């Protein structure tokens, strides 16, 4: 069963989008960096990740702490781990659920600390900034989070959080439903060094009955959070525009799950599955034929360390990685009004070489790619370049000979002393 | 509520340092010259400001700094106001102690700068002047100028004035651990008349600054003035920390 974790990119804006998935359920989300981050084109420090099948959805919205060391590192790391944790949790009561989460939050610090240690600070930064960043590194990277698992078969919702992000539960009339133990403390967060910081993870398991929507968002939405009882893509986009003008513009991320979505006409249809192929073995570009009615495509790139997805409107995709490890890639067709297609068969890109599609589940160890012969195009280019160099050397030598002969003739005809006199 | 505006890249806080570099600043305090300790403390708070302004690798211009070093005359060290992202490239300047202590001239320079700047401070945190000295003023009494400055206001509140007096004569009893010191809670704690003059020239610590100082691990009490005895490196460090304790986004 192909159930990859969907991630929203941190390095760009994602306008309000909607996925309708079997269940049926609808996920509506938006992601926008702060004005400063957009201006400098640096990564946002919020992060959204989710995973779903026809019965369950696990999600995490994280808000990296800007005062910590590269808060986006903690946000991404934690978001991916939380989705995995929630997807695999078997807890049936709040207490063991939170105890298990607390333990995991502590265990993840080893790997997270290694990530923080490995982060390179650019040498060209001013010395004072490097010192300030190294001091931050000592305290680690930190993030707040709001996450959950909805299990429709078990008729249960599990929620967890630390910090001042918000989770909302809504009933069919758009009224907020109380969340047991709901306290949103700014001081509470997860630290790559300490695990839970300034408190323990909060959360609950509760019955799903009466809940039709769940919303999670970062504190960047400000006062708009309370208005999410009725949420639309237009509302989210205008909210992002408005917040982007504020003096204290912060990263904005919203993730909403509608459990009571109904098709307006007939049944939801499922989009056909795209066929992924690689047009040339000379470069790692992914290509697929347009899928009827698809408005966008979701590309999955799994490097085995930090998988990510990215939505594109075109039917080609250039993986931006400098290829240091094999990439397992797949694509899915989407629009706002139909179920997404199944994921395509995957291709593996291995350091400039490509393997053909094979029916392997993503997440499995990729097969060792066969060594490809050297690229003839590159050889031709190299031969052409060598011929050009040889020609340059020959022309230079010829010119030198002409100059020497001309000087010799001048000396013979005019005489050396006269020539020197002329020069003076 | 006053002093709640947060420093952002579009609403930065203006901090004006008035640093006494008179000849007496070359005297030793412990194992270092006073002026060196001040440079170190300035370096520390500059690093803290950089850290508080840095998101990832991006240094947002949340702080705007002016540094006037004064002795008999006033020197504009940064050549005007610099944002923290500009300041970070040049680092903390070095100071060479010499001459007298013309405190009034320094505050006059600050007042003139504020007169130019205040009109643009809608939505910004109130500016702060951090004055550090190790002796009584020479020449004109700075008190009237400082009172004029403390009367200047912005929508976030009146201009804040902090004083750091590097001397062991300011308090009747020495301060133990800096992080547990509650601040000057009683005027009777002050040991001399100049200390009382400085008290009148110091703003009360706003609630929002107290919260930030608690985050830094200091136990200052509500109602304490922005007047600090620079009796030790730790107290001087705490005093400079206060100068950068404007809430940030």
Q: What separation lies between the terminal Cα atoms of chain B?
A: 17 Å
What is the CA-based Rg of chain B, rounded? 17 Å
Oligomerization category of the chains in this entry: heterodimer
- Alpha-beta content class of chain B: alpha/beta
Whole-number mean pLDDT of chain A: 87
DSSP helical segment count of chain B: 7
* Helix content range of chain B: 25-40%
**Strand fraction of chain A:** 25-35%
Major sheet of chain B: 7 strands, mixed
Q: Briefly note the structural class of the backbone of chain A.
A: alpha+beta
Sheet with the most strands, sense and barrel status of chain A:
8 strands, antiparallel
What is the total tally of β strands of chain A?
Answer: 22
> What is the percent of helical residues of chain A?
25-40%
Question: What gross morphology of chain B would you assign?
Answer: globular
Average per-residue pLDDT of chain B, rounded, comes to 93
Provide a descriptive summary of the structure in words:
The complex is a heterodimer of chains A (424) and B (249). In chain A, 29% of the residues lie in helices and 28% in strands. With 424 residues, chain A is α+β, with helices and mostly antiparallel strands. In chain A, the strands form 4 sheets. In chain A, strands 1, 4, 5, 6, 7, 10, 11 and 12 form an 8-stranded antiparallel beta sheet that branches. In chain A, helix 2 (71-88) runs antiparallel to helix 3 (94-118). Chain A contains 7 helices and 22 strands. In chain A, a hairpin with a 5-residue loop joins strand 17 and strand 18 (308-312). Helix content of chain B is 32%, strand content 19%. In chain B, the strands form 4 sheets. In chain B, strands 1, 6, 7, 8, 9, 12 and 13 form a 7-stranded mixed beta sheet that branches. In chain B, strands 2-3 form a two-stranded antiparallel sheet. In chain B, a hairpin with a 2-residue loop joins strand 4 (54-55) and strand 5. In chain B, helix 1 (34-53) runs parallel beside helix 7 (233-243) and helix 3 (103-117) runs parallel beside helix 4. The model of chain B has no long low-confidence stretch (mean pLDDT 93). The chains are: A alpha+beta (424), B alpha/beta (249). The A-B interface holds A 34-37, 40, 42-43, 45, 66-67, 70-72, 121-122, 125-129, 131-133, 135-136, 247-250 and B 6, 8-11, 46-48, 50-52, 54-60, 88-89, 91, 123, 249.
